[in-house]
Design brief:
This protein is α/β, with parallel strands linked by helices. The protein has a single domain, classed as Glutaconate Coenzyme A-transferase (3-Layer(aba) Sandwich), CATH 3.40.1080.10. The chain is 22% helix and 27% strand. Strands 1, 2, 3, 4, 5, 9, 10, 11 and 12 form a nine-stranded mixed sheet that branches. Strands 6-8-7 form a three-stranded antiparallel sheet. Helix 5 crosses helix 6. The longest helix has 13 residues. The termini are far apart.
Length: 238
């Protein structure tokens, strides 16, 4: 019987190893798998390369992972937001490497990784510092920059509902990078607000098929990241 359910977030991330590349879903707070990230903080894996839309807020979630000096490099679109306090200081001190990628390009690099496409051409970043050192070609009298696909060892993703086969349904825009990250990682780990039995999700509503998911863990009362940031909470909890 197929059963991808894990009892705890700690069990689900127990084999994330030093030096791993980890994709983390989320657009700011929306879709951010806070409990899985905190479990990864507790796990203690270091020298991680993180692929995410942003670099976290306050001192919780992804920001906590970075603050704990477990991340050596981050590939993202928005490394600094209004409430980003950890990454800017660490970056200025040379404590973390940044690969800045335009948001649409980041999504397509991940999608390409999941589809087995090694690289593609885009007009985005032509003539900017982000194009330096990259192959350029001309198509139809327009210049394009070649971007390489991104794949990962692990993906940490948040969804609304999952079944024990790993079929996923997301909550509106909290879907964001989740589906493409599930496809582009060797091991996809998902936290779901609710886990149901196979057949309880209408197949027409499944966004990510279970074939792309290795593990699911139920987090019935997920943290409100904005509230934690507003309360100036820090993880590990103090």
């Amino acid at each position: 019987m197929i059963n991808k359910v894990f009892h705890t977030a700690a069990e689900a991330v127990a084999d994330v190893f030093n030096g791993a590349t980890v994709m983390i879903s989320g657009f700011g707070e929306a879709g951010s798998p806070v409990e899985l990230i905190h479990a990864l903080v507790d796990r203690g894996a270091r020298n991680l390369t993180i692929v995410s839309n942003n670099a976290g807020s306050g001192h919780v979630g992804l920001a906590a992972l970075i603050e704990n000096r477990q991340v050596s490099k981050i590939i993202c679109s928005f490394p600094r937001t209004l409430i980003s306090v950890v990454f800017p200081e660490l970056y200025r001190s040379g404590g973390i490497e940044l690969e800045l990628v335009p948001q649409g390009t980041l999504a397509e690099r991940i999608r390409a990784g999941g589809a087995g496409i090694p690289a593609f051409y885009t007009r985005t970043s032509v003539g900017t510092p982000l194009a330096e050192g990259k192959e350029e070609r001309e198509f139809g009298n327009q210049h394009f920059v070649m971007e390489k696909a991104i794949q990962a060892d692990f993906a940490l993703v948040k969804c609304q509902t999952a079944d024990r086969y790993g079929n996923l349904v997301y909550n509106k825009t909290a879907r964001n990078f989740g589906p493409v990250m599930c496809m582009a990682a060797k091991t996809t780990i998902v936290q779901a607000k609710k886990i149901v039995e196979p057949g309880e999700i209408d197949p027409e509503c499944v966004v990510t098929p279970g074939i792309f998911v290795k593990r699911v863990v139920e987090i019935s009362n997920p943290a409100d990241e904005s509230k934690l940031v507003a309360e100036e909470r820090r993880y590990p909890w103090k």
